[in-house]
Q: What sequence folds into this?
């Protein structure tokens, strides 16, 4: 790992810079720290960080950029006519990468010398067999153009690495030299170091924006690709979801949206009454002891991973419902075809959302001032009258916000619906039927064999973007309502 | 009005409305009220005065069992309303509080319209047979709360939109609307400006015709202005109880004198 | 002050009657009150009942995975089968496939039956079928590791077939296997004989906790160990990235950020990122880390990066809360003696907020540990992670699974024997989560400061 060694060298250099900078500052002050502008440690940090940070930044960017650059170069090297039928440039490129990695390994293990690896000819040597000997299994024989590309790939990578090492080393040494030269007892080392640290802090904070931009861009590009292959009118307004990997699919979001909303609705139907009443009981009736036991216990439900709920839906609730409503079930009816259904996923998701609704509502109910309750109780109202006629109306906006947040959770939930809802896209009002959701389809279109040039795969990005916009809208609205509500009582 | 002169009021045969006997109140381990005996008369304004933390508000909240809402609070002894022990197991605090209304330190109108604020009590207690009767009760209460003229044109406006003094008078009107026999007021003017305070004080004097009023105040002047009887609390003890004039001009207990003259409190 | 000498208007009190006897209205209202309170209690009860049902289901269905049915056989490692040339050349021994080992197991059954004096109508082939398909591989591995044992008789503890295991655990009965081709009633009778003889036993199965996943033909051999390692590497990535970045971002936002539009955007961004569905982070990971940067699919590094982005908002929010709880007087005191703002933050505020930050980080990690959806998209499901990585770099870069992904994988498989594994896996996952949360709670209790 040459990169690892480079980083270690950089760290060592930086440590050296720290010692040198500190010494030089002390010398310029004649050994008297009081004569220095800043504490000695800051002079050391100044030199050390100036040597380290720019070099490290360049190294990081280089590491990300170089493979992409080389990929593009190599990819251009392979003429389109040499890409076999039923294959794509991407597949050929992954062959190239695998062969290159195999050659690397061969050199590392001493099976081939560096020159031998560079001069290997596919016409003369069975490369697949040679690589097989050292444990690199290739799916097919290595074609000459692939071997050429792989060798070129190795060459460029090697050159790139050398140049990178030199650039990074120069940067580090230069930074060290400049900051060392600047070090003097009147130099404002602390201010400079603090500026640098502040810049790092800002960088960290901007990562949040970067993530959002990354989310939006990554989905936007692929969504645009999708719409160039598939009509947007059909996506948004069509009524059928029927992906077909031979092409000519009908990919409309509406049936998926229906399934998503139906399941979310059932989940809220379970979670909102239970969560709200639990919150009311905990904040208005329960003694401190009850509260301190029941509240954390309820919140455990929120800490359980969704995979557990998914399994619960798939293996417990589904079969239970099927045992009642399916053929040969307890009720002697035949309303359910299998264990997966809207009701299965909805009920389990509802259980998951109970603590979510209850703790948000609990906070919101507690924000209603006590004087309001006293006023009502002082007039001879019972507690329930106080809650229903004074506390809840006062808390209503906040509770609406909480329900919206829960709805956004339900719409974006994946594992429960993947395991409990089923895979059939349709419009139906029967909660005992299998239906599918946006998140389920994203998972199924993007797992297994994917081809990023077909609309059947790309549709997942359009679905993802729609989901993102939908949940973001709900969240922004809900957070706005809740904030307004809190301001009212502050 | 001169603070320290007292009009001799008609001391007719007022009967005892509330009698407290050997009342002890504990907050967890703290003994907040120690052995208080007091008789509160009908159609009288009784003032509870004393330095802050002396237990006067705590005692007031015992009179309509508002302390029930606090988990750690325990009340011992007897408090009789018209001869009936209000801490008897058979007594429903809800019914008690309809008889013994309360007005709080901070104006606390509900986030509803002015009309609905006043109509709240009559509605929950089922005092009105129909809308017309309810309208009548609301108007009568707002008049008794001396705020009718200010709000009669905007009964549908939210109660929270009124000024502080108006809010407090609205709260008094709201309390009056349930036809209580006793009105408890916990420092009703402490959050109000002097003009609003004067209006509320005038109202209190007015209310005396119909109700027995108990007012907690930290202002001795206010006690002197509005009350006929005064009780002085100190460190959880009822130090002295008697005619307001008597307490302010000729206190028996040295602690009362110290407080009135400003040496403690 | 006017003197009110006129008599007050006489009106009948609306609250006539004694306080001691409740009025009809009050009785009705109190019933409504009791009902309302009842709804609240019912709601809490429903919530707690669900928790109880969930825990009960997990435990009752999952504990089975921790015991496994083993069969003890004395296998004679015949030289004629394993090393025909007799020169103990490892390369020659390796050429014998697992097929070559199958007869040894058949022979072992025969020997065992003879030794115990048992009789059965079952053919030798069917006898051997009650042993797991992994048994031959287990033998082969042993022989390759100890070639000098060839020709001797060694006692082995083999896994039994998952049907036999299910029979021992009550999951499989004679009725339920009517249409099952992989086991017959006769074989179950045979199993009963062996159980009575003490050859087949159900014992604790450490391999479930430490072992690797197995192909879908051999549920009895599947374990959580390798995916646990995968999760560990992901958590290392999350910890190494999310903690420093999260703390740095929080310090900036809480202590240094000026009140301007940029800060507002960052803040709104963070609170919204916290509520973005986790699957969206999976799409981001797939598009950016795998399709764009060509990082290896299924690698814990990629999983860790995705989970880092997902956990960051949680860590930032909790870190900001604990920075905020340090009172301004501490900052003022530091600034008052001439410290720079940066010094006051790093010397005083940050150490005081450290327990809160740590608590938030642990909770964030626990959340990341249980997250599944984004891992589906970056390919951490759907293959068999058979070997534990041998170094840091292979741990980060070679394909692996993660605990929740492994559970999902098992739940998808057709053989119901895997369901028991899935529930058992959940127990392990929950043990981790409970431990982490307990540590967080203890930290909070121990170091919480009330200012």
A:
């Amino acid at each position: 790992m040459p990169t690892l060694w480079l980083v270690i060298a950089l760290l060592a250099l930086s440590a050296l810079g720290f010692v040198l900078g500190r010494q030089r500052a002390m010398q310029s002050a004649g050994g008297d720290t009081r004569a220095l502008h800043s504490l000695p440690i800051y002079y050391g940090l100044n030199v050390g960080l100036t040597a380290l940070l720019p070099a490290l930044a360049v190294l990081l960017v280089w590491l990300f950029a170089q493979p992409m650059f080389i990929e593009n170069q190599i990819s251009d090297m392979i003429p389109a006519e040499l890409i076999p039928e039923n294959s794509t440039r991407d597949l050929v490129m992954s062959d190239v990468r695998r062969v290159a990695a195999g050659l690397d390994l061969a050199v590392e293990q001493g099976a081939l010398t560096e020159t031998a690896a560079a001069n290997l000819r596919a016409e003369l040597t069975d490369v697949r067999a040679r690589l097989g000997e050292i444990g690199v299994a290739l799916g097919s024989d290595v074609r000459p153009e692939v071997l050429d590309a792989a060798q070129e790939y190795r060459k460029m990578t090697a050159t790139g690495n050398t140049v990178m090492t030199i650039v990074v080393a120069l940067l580090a040494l230069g930074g060290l030299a400049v900051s060392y030269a600047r070090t003097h007892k009147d130099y404002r080392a602390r201010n400079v170091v603090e500026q640098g640290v502040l810049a790092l802090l800002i960088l960290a904070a901007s990562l949040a924006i970067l993530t959002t931009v990354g989310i939006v861009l990554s989905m936007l590009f692929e969504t645009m690709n999708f719409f160039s292959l598939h009509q947007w009118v059909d996506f948004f307004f069509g009524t059928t979801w029927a992906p077909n990997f031979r092409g000519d699919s009908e990919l409309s979001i509406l049936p998926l949206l229906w399934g998503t909303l139906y399941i979310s609705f059932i989940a809220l139907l379970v979670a909102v009454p239970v969560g709200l009443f639990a919150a009311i009981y905990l904040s208005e009736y329960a003694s401190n002891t009850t509260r301190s036991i029941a509240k954390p216990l309820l919140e455990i439900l929120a800490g359980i991973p969704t995979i557990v709920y998914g399994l619960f839906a798939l293996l417990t609730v589904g079969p239970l419902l099927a045992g009642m409503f399916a053929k040969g079930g307890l009720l002697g009816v035949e309303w359910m075809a299998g264990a997966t259904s809207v009701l299965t996923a909805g009920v389990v998701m509802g259980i998951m959302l109970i603590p979510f609704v209850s703790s948000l509502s609990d906070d919101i109910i507690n924000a209603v001032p006590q004087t309001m309750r006293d006023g009502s109780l002082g007039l001879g109202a019972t507690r329930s009258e106080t809650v229903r006629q004074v506390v809840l109306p006062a808390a209503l906006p906040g509770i609406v916000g909480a329900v919206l947040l829960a709805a956004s959770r339900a719409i974006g939930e994946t594992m429960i619906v993947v395991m409990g809802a089923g895979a059939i896209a349709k419009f139906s009002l029967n909660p005992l039927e299998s239906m599918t959701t946006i998140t389920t389809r994203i998972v199924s279109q993007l797992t297994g064999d994917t081809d990023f040039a077909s609309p059947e795969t790309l549709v997942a990005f359009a679905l993802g973007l729609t989901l993102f916009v939908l949940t973001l809208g709900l969240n922004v609205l809900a957070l706005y309502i809740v904030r307004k509500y809190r301001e009212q009582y502050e | 009005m001169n603070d320290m002169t007292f009009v001799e009021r008609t001391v007719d045969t007022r009967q005892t409305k509330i009698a407290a006997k050997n009342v002890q109140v504990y907050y967890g381990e703290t003994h907040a009220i120690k052995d208080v005996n007091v008789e509160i008369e009908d159609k009288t304004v009784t003032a509870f005065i004393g330095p802050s933390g002396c237990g006067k508000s705590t005692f007031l909240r015992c009179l309509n069992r508002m302390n029930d809402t606090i988990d750690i609070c325990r009340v011992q002894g007897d408090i009789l309303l018209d001869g009936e022990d209000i801490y008897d197991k058979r007594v429903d605090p809800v019914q008690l509080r309809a008889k013994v209304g309360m007005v709080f330190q901070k104006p606390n109108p509900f986030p509803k319209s002015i009309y609905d604020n006043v109509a709240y009590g009559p509605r929950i207690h089922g005092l009105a047979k129909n809308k017309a009767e309810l309208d009548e009760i609301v108007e009568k209460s707002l008049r008794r709360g001396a705020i009718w003229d200010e709000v009669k044109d905007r009964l549908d406006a939210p109660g929270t939109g009124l000024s502080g003094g108006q809010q407090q008078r609205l709260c008094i009107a709201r309390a009056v609307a349930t036809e209580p026999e006793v009105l408890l007021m916990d420092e009703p003017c402490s959050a109000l400006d002097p003009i609003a305070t004067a209006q509320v004080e005038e109202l209190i004097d007015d209310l005396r015709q119909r109700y027995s009023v108990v007012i907690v105040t930290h202002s001795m002047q206010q006690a002197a202005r509005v009350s006929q009887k005064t009780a002085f609390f100190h460190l959880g003890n009822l130090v002295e109880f008697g005619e307001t004039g008597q307490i302010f001009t000729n206190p028996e207990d040295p602690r009362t004198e110290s407080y009135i003259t400003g040496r403690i409190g | 002050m006017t003197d009110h000498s006129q008599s007050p208007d006489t009106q009948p009190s609306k609250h006539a009657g004694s306080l001691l006897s409740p009025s009809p209205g009050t009785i009705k209202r109190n019933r409504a009150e009791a009902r309302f309170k009842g709804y609240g209690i019912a709601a809490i009860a429903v919530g707690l009942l669900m928790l109880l049902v969930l825990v009960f289901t997990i435990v009752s269905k999952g504990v089975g995975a921790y015991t496994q049915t083993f069969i003890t056989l004395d296998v004679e490692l015949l030289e004629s089968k394993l090393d025909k040339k007799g020169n103990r050349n490892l390369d020659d021994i390796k050429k014998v496939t697992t097929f070559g080992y199958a007869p040894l197991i058949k022979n072992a059954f025969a020997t065992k039956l003879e030794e115990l004096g048992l009789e059965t109508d079952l053919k030798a082939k069917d006898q051997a079928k009650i042993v797991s398909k992994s048994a031959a591989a287990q033998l082969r591995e042993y022989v390759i590791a100890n070639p000098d044992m060839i020709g001797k008789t060694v006692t082995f503890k083999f896994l039994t077939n998952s049907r036999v295991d299910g029979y021992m655990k009550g999951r499989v009965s004679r009725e339920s296997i009517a249409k099952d081709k992989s086991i017959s009633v006769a074989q179950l009778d045979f199993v009963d004989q062996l159980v009575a003889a003490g050859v087949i036993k159900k014992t604790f199965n450490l391999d479930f906790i430490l072992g690797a996943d197995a192909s879908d033909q051999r549920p009895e051999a599947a374990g959580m160990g390798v995916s646990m390692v995968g999760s560990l590497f992901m958590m290392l990535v999350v910890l190494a990235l999310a903690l420093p970045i999260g703390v740095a971002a929080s310090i900036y936002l809480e202590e240094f950020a000026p009140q301007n539009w940029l800060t507002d955007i960052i803040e709104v961004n963070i609170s919204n990122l916290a509520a973005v569905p986790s699957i969206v982070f999976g799409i981001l990971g797939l598009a950016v880390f795998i399709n764009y940067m060509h990082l290896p699919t299924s690698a814990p590094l990629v999983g860790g990066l995705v989970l880092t982005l997902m956990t960051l908002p949680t860590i930032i929010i909790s870190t900001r809360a604990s920075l905020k709880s340090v009172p301004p007087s501490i900052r003022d005191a530091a600034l008052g003696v001439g410290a720079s703002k940066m010094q006051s933050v790093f010397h005083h505020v940050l150490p005081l907020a450290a327990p809160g930050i740590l608590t938030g980080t642990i909770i964030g990690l626990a959340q990341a540990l249980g997250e599944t959806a984004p891992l589906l998209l970056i390919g951490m499901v759907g293959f068999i992670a058979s070997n534990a990585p041998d170094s840091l770099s292979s741990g980060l870069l070679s394909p692996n699974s993660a605990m929740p992904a492994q559970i999902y994988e098992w739940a998808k498989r057709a053989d119901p024997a895997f369901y028991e594994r899935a529930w058992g896996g959940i127990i392990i996952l929950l043990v981790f989560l409970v431990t982490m949360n307990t540590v967080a709670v203890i930290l909070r209790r121990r170091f919480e400061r009330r200012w």
Q: What stands out?
A: Chain A touches chain C through 93 residues (CB under 8 Å).
